[in-house]
Amino acid sequence: MEDDKKALYNQIVDHLMNMIEKKEILPGDRLPTEHELMVKFNVSRITAKRALEELKNRGLIYRKQGQGSFLSNTIGLENMNRPKIISMIIPYENSTGRFIDYIRGAGDYLYSKGYLLSINCTDGDENKEREFLLNMSKVGASGIIYYPTNRMHSFDILSMFYMNQYPIVLIDKYFDSLPLSFSISDNFDGGYKASKHLIELGHEHIAFISSVNIERVPSVRDRFLGYCNALKDSGIEIKSDFIVSQLEDTCGKEGMDQVLKKLLEIGVTAVISENDYVAIDIIKVLKSININVPNDISLIGFDNISILEQVDISLTTIEQDFYEIGKKAAKIVIDNLEGKVISQVKEITPIRLIERNSTISLK
Q1: Where does the signal sequence lie (predicted)?
Q2: Domain 83-185+322-350, architecture per CATH
């Protein structure tokens, strides 16, 4: 039964490839239309369309507006055996940490389905990111797994993908304004669990610190909303003075000591950081002004990054399963290609609180 489901998309590609290899379709001949394929294989239009798109991406066919798909006059063995590729677009490529686990999760799943994973690193360059998005489908990628850094910079391209039903899935983030499929962590629950942990330790004056604009980054926004809901559920007042957004833009790392001093002056006993990297910066600044974690202030991060061991910081944090996020993203793309899904898929992977020595009980 599972093989039958898997064949929805590949069956059409294999059938057409077999016809080409047997020279039942010759260069310049028109291929069956989407409608003819829909009837013959009893599949949806998107499945038939994706099968033809796959052959186009392999360089085997070309389209004529209003006439259909035709076998290329320049096909060769190298195109016939061209592997099926899914592209991953990410900001950075690390040998350790979150991105390598995204890659491993996606790569393992795709390999099991007969696909290869192409890694495209933008180095944080928004123009390079946009260029990758524009070119991946043109160079033969059957689908894209995309870690977005700036929605506004690529909104037009993503809208085009959505309207054309091109298989693309977001990781780490999602867009309220565009119903693209995504695979993310349960950031809301992460913010909630971190806050609840501190509350159970007796903390009521808890700050939330973010280096970026809280509202503009969905993952950070969800962590913040989890923080707010945990305070509300425990009957603790949410104070605007305890919330720091766009830390680096407003004061830079040089002014972080003033921000932290102010929080201590107004009674903050614990801090939830946007992520572990910001938490590490907070620890360094606090140490420079002779404030001890956790004796003077408790601190919780987010991500459980491997660098914590290298810098010898025993940080309580929220662990994300990056491998599973990458794997689920890959599955969404393949399900889309095989015609199993045509609407938005929302995959939310559970998180886990890792309790270490950066928090202390006030009871």
Answers
A1: none
A2: 3-Layer(aba) Sandwich (3.40)
